[in-house]
Design brief:
heterodimer, A: three-stranded parallel sheet, three-stranded parallel sheet, 8 helices, 35% helix, B: 2 helices
Chain lengths: 265, 75
Amino acid sequence: MDGTTHTETQDDTWTVAGRTFTSRLIIGTGKYKDYAQNAAAAEAAGAEIVTVALRRVNLSDPSQQMLVDYVKPDRFTYLPNTAGCFTGEEAVRTLRLAREAGGWDLVKLEVLSDPKLLYPDMEETLRALKMLIAEGFQVMVYCTDDPVYARKLEEAGACAVMPLAAPIGSGMGILNKVNIGLIIEQAKVPVLVDAGLGTASDAAIAMEMGCDAVLMNTAISDARDPILMASAMKHAVIGGRQAFLAGRMPRRIYGDPSSPQSGLI
Amino acid sequence: MYDVLDEAVMTLTINGEERSFSGLSDLAALVLSLGLDPRKVAVERNLEIVPRSAYGATALSDGDRIEIVHFIGGG
């Protein structure tokens, strides 16, 4: 051995649409008590990217708190989403405005269907993706855990595919590890597990499976102590990633003693 | 002579809400009159994005539909 230790993974970066990041934890900016708590959670999570939504300004109170004053765009890469859009046209209109508001083209596409399940409408998502690609956007796509659709999105030009672990805000963790594993195995673009994670072990499992990053909102914002949970998620993502890189031991059905069997008194 | 340009009252629909203004020269004046920081918003006029650099050169007309949006928290 060369004597170096391999306990740090700062050089272990990931790249999406030509932008390179060290943190593999993307966090949402919804549902927090206020933007100050949101900013503190983003710091505790060690996040470099945050998702943001685009909405009408409140004309009756132009002095209200603004996200950009707390979670600052010069510190965090904003990833504008299309939450609330149900058609490709709505998504394109929203992201054109987001590009003008922020001046960047890296975006998160989510086109939902059923408002109860919050499942993506994959047919409309694929159509919207093609419209956005034609307009020059770099599109990270929220999708179901269907490997066939994940491949179609990639073929249509998605710069990342982001299958759900479970429905948005459900906190159930990865429901279909087989499908997530298949998507990771086949993808040539980054795979991010997005939505449905509930606690730190869920994030660690996703990272141990070899996904490139995870994206979450409610798991942090709805924790009793969101800042502490943000820190827990940071460590879980690093732990899961390092375990993936380290390569786990094989599973055995019988025990295997850790102490030598020779020299017993 | 009565100066229509200075005194004209125009009605705009801003974020779905009708509002009347008088003497608004352009979009830049509208954004300022609403108390908004132009660096923190994006504007659509009649479904067309108006680049921030063009606010001062974008005249408004009676009946225009304006959307003014910004980033808020979201997942």
